[in-house]
Each structure stands twice: as C-alpha cells, then as structure tokens.
Amino acid sequence: MTEPEQQLQTESDHREISVAEFFEKNRHLLGFSNPQKAIITCIKEAVDNSLDACEEERILPEIRVTVEEDEKKRLRWQVMDNAVGIDESIIPNIFGKLLYGSKFHKLQQSRGQQGIGISAAGLYAQLTTGNPVKIYSKKKGQEDTHMFKVRIDTQKNEPVIIEDRVVDDYEFDHGTSIEMDIEGKYTGGHHSVKTYLKHTAIMNPYAKIVLNEPDGNTIEFPRVTDKLPKIPKEIKPHPHGVELGVLMRMIKNSSSRTVSSFLQNEFTRVGRTSADEIVEKADMSGKERPSTLEKSKVEDLLAAMQKTDLQNPPTNCISPIGEDLVEEGLKKELNPEFVTSVTRKPAVYRGNPFQIEVGIAYGGDIDNEGTYNVLRYANKVPLIYKKNACATTEAIRETDWSRYGLSESGERPSGPVYILVHMASVWVPFTSEGKEAIASYPAITKEMKLALQEAGRDLKRYISKKQKAQMQKKKANKLSSYSMEMVPALAKLAEHDEDEIREELIDMMKQKYEVDVRKEMEKNTE
Amino acid sequence: MTEPEQQLQTESDHREISVAEFFEKNRHLLGFSNPQKAIITCIKEAVDNSLDACEEERILPEIRVTVEEDEKKRLRWQVMDNAVGIDESIIPNIFGKLLYGSKFHKLQQSRGQQGIGISAAGLYAQLTTGNPVKIYSKKKGQEDTHMFKVRIDTQKNEPVIIEDRVVDDYEFDHGTSIEMDIEGKYTGGHHSVKTYLKHTAIMNPYAKIVLNEPDGNTIEFPRVTDKLPKIPKEIKPHPHGVELGVLMRMIKNSSSRTVSSFLQNEFTRVGRTSADEIVEKADMSGKERPSTLEKSKVEDLLAAMQKTDLQNPPTNCISPIGEDLVEEGLKKELNPEFVTSVTRKPAVYRGNPFQIEVGIAYGGDIDNEGTYNVLRYANKVPLIYKKNACATTEAIRETDWSRYGLSESGERPSGPVYILVHMASVWVPFTSEGKEAIASYPAITKEMKLALQEAGRDLKRYISKKQKAQMQKKKANKLSSYSMEMVPALAKLAEHDEDEIREELIDMMKQKYEVDVRKEMEKNTE
Predict the structure, then answer these.
(1) Relative to the CA of A314, which of A370, B4, B249, B309 has its CA 20 to 30 Å away?
(2) How many angstroms separate the CA atoms of B359 and B337, rounded?
(3) The complex's ipTM?
C-alpha cells in the first residue's frame, strides 16, 4: 500500500451533472432505446402537447403528422396543429431545457406532466443527427409566424437559439409546428406510429388526425364528434395526501398569518369548521403564526389533519371522456358488433383524485385471433409499451372473464374483443419517465377491476342474448324444414285445407316457441 | 367560445422544475415506492458508497449497519465505514444535491454512477420525517471528526447546512458514517436488508459487514479473503461507441490543434496510424483545426471512425472479482456441496467494455425448494427487485438447463441450486434510476448465456459423476448383502476355507465392479 494511492475525494473530482447530460446517457429511460421506438416516442410527445394545447383553448384539434425518410435512412418528422401557438418568450426553454413546464406543479389533469418529453425528443435529435429542433408558431389573431431553430446546451441544460425569424407561411389560421431529424426506423405493426395514432383517435374522437407516411401513403383518422371534454380545473392539495416534508415547505413558504387561515387557504376541503377541528386536535389555538411553528408542532398538525374527517377532493380537476365518447371512439375505429363502456365515479390514491373508464368492443370487424386486444390509456394518451408491467393489465388478468362470456387462456381472456382501460388523474404514477406503464397502486387496480366487472356484465348479457338468438334460429330452421312436411298428413287427418293447417301451425309456433317460421321459410326458398 | 378562455401560454405559467422536486414527486423511480423497499434502498446506497470508497483507497472494508425503530414506527439507520472519510468541502453537495458526483463522466467501473443515490435517500428522509441527514467524517491521518447535518432545498436542489462542528468520537481510525430517519418497515424474507447484505457478502468476500437489527439481533458477514480486486482504470471513449451529438460536443470543447491530434488525444485505441486511416477515409488531411469543422465534415469523420478497424477498448477499466472469489463467496454464505464459476473475457456493447461472471452453487445446505435461486449483480451490487425485467433472468431462461443436469419447470431450472450472474462495466444500462435491473442489450445477454453454458457443463459433469457414484453405491449395497450369502455354498463346492473364499470374492468385486464390498459390509454392521 503506497502513499500516492491514498487520496481523499476532493472537490476537483466532483461536479454537478446537468439533467440533460443525465438523460442523454440514460435515454432508454425516456423511450429512446432503439430507432423504432424513438420515432413513436417523438410523435407521441408532440401530439400530446398539441392535444393539450387545443383542449385548453377549447379548439377542436386538427393535427397533421408527417414522417419522411432521407437518403441516409434518417427520419424527418413534423407535427403541425391548429392550437393557439406558443409565446416566443418561452419557445427556447420549452424545446431546449429539460424539466421546464407549466404542468408539474398543477393539480390538474393533462397529458404532459413533467416538462421533459418534447425537449428530450430534441436532445435525442441532436445526439443522433446533430440537427437543431425547428419550431413554427403562429399565435391566434396575429399575422406573423415565428420560426425558431433551437439546440440544447447539454452540459448546462439551457437552450441555444440558432435562428429566430418571422416567416409568413403557416397552413392553419394559428398553431404550432415542430420538426426534427432523428435516427429512427418507421415500421408497421403493433408498435408503430400508425397504431399509436389509431389508439389516440379512439380516445380523442373530437380530434382530426392526418398521418403522411414515408411511402407517400396518407391515413386520416376523422373527427366523429364536435363535443370536447370539459376543461379540468386546477385544485389545491388535500390534507390527507400531504407528507411531512411537503407540509413543512408549505408552511415555510406560506404568506398566511395564522395556522387556521393557512389551512383554509392552502388546502382543498378545509373550511372554518374543519380548520377549527384540526387545530384543536393538534392542541393549538389556530392563531399561531405558521413560520414560528416548531417541527414537533408541524408533526402534530399533520397527525391532526390525517385524523380529521374531510370530504374527498373535488373532482372537477379530472376530465374523463365519458361513456358516450368511449363508445363512439371504439365504434369508429374498430367497427364491432357490440360495444359498452363504464365511467366510474372519481376515487383517490395518496391524495390524488383519479377516475377510471373502461370500454369493451366485441365481434364485428374484430379478428378472433385467440387472445384479447388491450387499449391502455393514461390521461387520454395511449400506452404502447411495457404492457406486462402495467396496472391495467394486472386488473384485466385478475378479472374472471369466464363469468362474462369469454373463454380464458392462461389468465388472459380470449375472443374477438378489445378491452379499453383509461386512467384520468391529476398525477398518473408512471413506472418510468418514458410514461409507458401505470404503477400498481392498490386503490387504482381496485377501481379498474370494478369497472371491468361492470362492463363485463354488459358483455355477458349481450353474448347470452346472442347465443339464445342463435339457438332460436337453429330451432326455427329445424321446425321450418320438418314441421311443414307434416302439413299434408295433418290436413288429411283433420279433414281440413292444407293452407289453413299450415297457417295454424305457423301461428302456434310463433306463440309457443317465439319462432317466426314464415321468415325462415321465405329465407329457405330464396 | 368566449374571449377570456382563449389565453396564450405565457412565461408566468412556466417555470424550471428542479431535479429534486422531480424525484420527490416520482420517488418510486428511485426505489422509494413503499416503506419496506425504502429501508433496503437507503442501506444499499450507503453500503455501495462505502465499498466504492474503500476499494478506491485499497482498504479492506469494514462496514457496520444499524437499524433502529422508534416509538412512532419510524426507522433510524446508520451505515459506518472504515474508508478515508470525505473532504468537508464536498460533504454538503454529496448529501444535499441530486445529480452531483465524481463517477458520471468517468469511464471506469464503480458501484455508483449517477450521483443520485445517497442524496435521494436524504430527500426521502426529509420528506417522510422532516429530519436532516447526519454525516460523520474522519479523514485519514487527522484527529478530528467532522459532523454535518444537511437538508436539501428541494426547490433549488441545493444543500442547506443545519449544523457543522467538530466532534471527537469515531469508532474506526478513519471513515464516514451516515445516519437518517425515515418512514420505513424492517422485515425479513427475500426482500430484506439482511438478504441484501448476504448477497453483498457473497460478491464482496473481502468485506466484513455487521448488521445490527432493530430487535437487538446481530448478524456478522465475515471477511474470508484479504485479496482486494484490482483497481479499475479510467479510460477514454472508444471511436466505435460515440454518437454524432457527442462527437460534435467533444470537437467543440477540444483544445487539440488538429483533427489528427484530437483523435489521438481524446479516444482510446487511436494512434498515429489509425488517425491517418480515419482522416483519409473522411477525405481530410488531419491538419484541420477541430473547431473549424462544418457539421457535414464531422459526420464524415464519424462515418470514417466507424468504418476503421480498431482494437477493442482496453479492459483494465473493469474489475471482475474473478472465479476464485466468486466460489469463495458462494461457499462461505451457502455451504453447497459443489460450486463452479466462469469469468468471461471482456466484451463491448455500444462502445462500453463489460465483463460477465457467473457462478453455480449446488446441493449441500441449499434447499431443494423446487425452482432455482438467482443472485444478480451489477458492478458487485446485488439486484433484488425487478427480476423478471432483467437481462440476467432472460439469459437464465434462454439456457437449456436440461442439458446441464437440472430439471426444468416452465422455462426455469429447478433443484437445489443458486445461479449467480454478475455484470461488471464502466456503464451498466439500468432499466430505471433505481438501478434495479439490467436492460437486455443483445451483446450483454449473449455473453451471459455463453458463461452460463460453460458453468453448466461443469455442473453437468459433477451431477453425472454424482449419479454414477450413487449407482455404484446401490450396486455395492446389493452385492454386499447377497453375494456374501453365497460364501458357505461356494466354500463347500470348492472345498475351501470360507474366509478365503470371502476374501477372493471381495477382491474380485473390487476389481470388476469397482466396489469396495468390505466398506459396505462394515457400514452395514455398524
């Protein structure tokens, strides 16, 4: 053991790592692990933003997605929308800085929540092709379109503006268009841009989406309703969902003059009466200045908050698309013979309101390929990857589908069926930054299972009715072919006219067996 | 549609999100999804750091882990080591700032790589109990021990020093001790601190680890060798593993005066000859100033780098523990009847050198519970969670164990067996920040499978030999019980002494059947 080897770790070895550097090296965490997945992730992030922007501004979304392949086998993609554009002051940060956004701190349902997605796509673009992101923005009511080219200074996680000028061409009256060059692979199949947009169209039937594929093919996902879902409202945190560290920070940052007003101002579902109850349980007067509270008093306050009965958080912060639109969406893209849907009442996990919707589409154009098809959604965004790590799949597997008219292979239902599960929430607990699967909180899977059971019962009714109708039809077929042969013999026996006997037999069967023999006879002679 | 609803997104809505805020809200990404997992994650992060620190300084690690439970059902944990301490100048940042460290930018094997782990534990501690992290550091050769209490300003991702003073008590001659209070649940079983430390002891047999459990129980994992693995060296990036965006940044930041010297200075395995070959292929002279290169020339340079044959990266940047120590580790903690191990030669994925080691322990004290037991490691750190999402498990399942003497149930080998897989690399591609599973890069699973097959063949030989020995033993048993009954009859027939005949028979069987009847006879009469 020699001296030079024994060195202390000192400042010179250590440095801050920018979040952009971190994700550049860990890009598989964000959905950029291979070229095929990369293009889907890019389109997803841009389309999510467009749909969020349109809904916030009550605009029926029209989105044009274009993917081209160049001679070097790179992909150039563009997503153009008719939202209201983005203010020039924030364009560089939105596209050139990871962890920047407006949604992270809001308790309000939206597709984006972390401020990572679109800038991560830009990071991937510059890593793989060296090219900056190109953004066009035309604000509502303005003539000019702004064009930016932005790169990310990875070591600082800061935007660098390469170009910033006014142009005059934009296809819609207003909106934003994003363009990037990436190393990517455009494919078909289950994991593809096309499938992703199809699933998006099902859950967002008020959007018109057009996809221009690299081979020149154009696919349109039409708008089938002009009804936008209601705007979710922002809410304050609920006292039952807050943790000690967060409460301490809220108290430190609060401008309220008393603990009682702090409770009423900063939390939802706390009025004068509840505030009184809480401070009493915490053995306080409520008149204390928040900033003077000792840590042990804050702990008492938290314990009192958790012990006090309070209304559940308000649910206007979440906006499910509703049973009618779920069914519309399933019908328009799948053309099934039967469709049903269930939107559960809102529930709460760890203080966060959420709401589960499920839909089932059965038969018709749906292939009977053996196992079921699943449509997984979080805040209206399709989840394509990590199916087996997702709460939705867990809920489906833990449902006894044999009770609902489907056969099962392994733990999975099989048959010509699509099962849709949607979680709408102010904060969806994803299993990774790539937002690919929902973490299995017990409160969430429970709601999913209840919704699936309810929809399952509708399915069962339909399948039973269909089976009964098929049985009846079989019976009718038999009766019509054999019973009519008896007519001459019966006529002779009863000394009656054959036609009369036939009519009587037909009437009798109609009453007794609910079978319309005449129809069957007509069909048989066709 | 009314005017007030149509608002542009403006700067006021948008803000930067600190990485600490991000992970506070997404703490399940870092291994803090529930109280049981939280305590394991905390201990893991601290023990990893201690082992890294000791190895860097060539000190045989001695680590004391203590977990206590207080009356509020919170856990207080402490990890104390005999490394060389930490310089006071960097203590606040190490424990109070996420994404801060010395290992992220180095191509050199270490347990830590991201600069998130221990500060994330501190973030979780202050979120759940409001208490700061307590650090004791006694530097080698100094009398004083420094004691810090540090919190994280979550909104800024900056440390706040609560206390900083000199104390005079430290149990070892030098080292670091960390203490935190967390909401946690201490349990036994497969997912427990004890199991985690046991698995750590197997892969780090040169460490002595002592665990003091909340119930007062003490478990010691003893040191069984004084041989430390060699120190991995830091290397430069390899030209075949670099991407365009990174190359552009390297060129921009380079102080080299020519492209040729840039290539030789900044990359491994590029000497004068290779540099000449690369620049020629890129249609350049090599004398160009790096900073003046246009983007298209950088692309040409990258293409030329990738087309040029170069030696694989040097592998002294990785340090496997070696076949002997793998076997030592398995023996000391499992006491099997058979053990084997294989350390493969280094290989490369995406420019990153890595090396696979496997070990198999069979029989002896190992329970025959049906399915196999797995020991997964990344840079000597046990992986406890996400078994099914891990490349190690994939490799084991894709190996045909019936060829190696084990029966299979499903795709899994079964029997009294532990299978150990270790990936050592300058950069392990984890599937999440929690570093719980290794992503399945084809180059990695391929090496794992080759190693498993090699070790499997050793296992097969042992099991075959054992089976043969068992057969022989059976035969010997039969012979000793029946053949001796023939002695009197034979003696009469041959008109010989019975003892003589018996001896002859015994000799014959020893020669012909390789069976020592005398031994069996002695055993039977015991």
Answers:
(1) B4
(2) 14
(3) 0.82
Q: Where residue B294 sits, what CATH number does that domain have?
A: 1.10.8.50
Q: How far does chain A reach from its first CA to its final CA, in angstroms?
A: 101
- Report the distance separating Cα B244 and Cα B303, nearest Å: 9
CA B305 from chain centre, in angstroms, equals 33
**Gap from B124 CA to chain A (nearest CA, Å):** 9
| Same-domain pairing of B297 and B410 | no
**Residue type, position A193, single letter:** V
Domain end residue (candidates: A457, A483, A507): A457
Q: Are residues B362 and B444 in the same domain?
A: yes
Give the residue from A26, A5, A49 showing the smallest Cα distance to A379: A49
Residues B335 and B475 in one domain: no
Cα dihedral A445, A451, A453, A456 sign:
negative
Q: Is residue A5 part of a domain?
A: no
Contacts of B248 in chain A (CB under 8 A): 130
Q: SS3 sequence, A402-467?
A: HHHCCEEECCEEECCEEEEEEEEECCCCECCCCCCCECCCHHHHHHHHHHHHHHHHHHHHHHHHHH
Q: What is the tally of structural domains in chain B?
A: 4
- Point out the domain boundary residue: A192, A221, A250: A221
In a domain, B226, yes or no: no
Neighbours of B277 (CB within 10 A): 17
Quick one: A51 and A167 in the same domain? yes
How far, in Å, CA of A400 to CA of A388, rounded? Answer: 18
Q: Which residues contact B98 (CB under 8 A, 6 or more apart)?
A: B19, B20, B23, B115, B116, B119, B120, B123, B152, B157
Question: How many alpha carbons lie under 13 Å from residue B158 in its C-beta half-sphere?
Answer: 3
Q: Quick check: B148 and B89 in contact, CB under 8 A? A: no
DSSP string, B187-234: --SSSSHHHHHHHHHHH-TT-EEEEE-TTS-EEEE------PPPPPPP
Calculate ∠ Cα B229-B200-B85, nearest 5°.
65
* A249 contact residues in B (CB cutoff 8 A): 154-155
Burial class (CB in 10 A: 0-12, 13-18, 19+), B168: exposed
Residue A188 neighbours by CB distance under 10 Å: 10
Contact between chains at A84 and B13 (C-beta distance less than 8 A): no
Test A104 with B9 for CB contact under 8 angstroms. no
Mean pLDDT by 10 residues, chain A (526 residues): 40 80 87 92 96 94 96 92 94 93 82 88 95 95 93 95 92 95 93 95 95 96 91 90 91 93 95 96 94 92 94 88 92 94 91 93 87 93 90 94 87 89 93 88 94 97 90 72 68 74 72 63 58
Residue showing tokens 């249609």? B283
Contact between chains at B298 and A29 (C-beta distance less than 8 A): no
Residue in chain B nearest A105 by alpha carbon? B17
What's the distance, Cα to Cα, between the start and end of chain B in Å? Answer: 100
Closest C-alpha among A230, A227, A228, A208 to residue A219: A208
- Other Cβ atoms less than 10 A from the Cβ of A25: the count is 19
Query: Who among A7, A14, A90 is closest to B100 (CB)?
Result: A14
Q: Which of A11, A93, A431 sits opposite B90 (nearest CB)?
A: A11
Helical axes B35-56 vs B193-203, angle rounded to 10°: 30
- Regarding whether B349 and B289 lie in a shared domain, the answer is no
Which residue's structure tokens are 């300003």? B153
**Which residue range is the domain that position B367 belongs to?**
323-463
Cβ atoms of A17 and B94 within 8 Å: the answer is no
Q: What proportion of chain B, given as a percentage, has pLDDT over 70?
A: 91
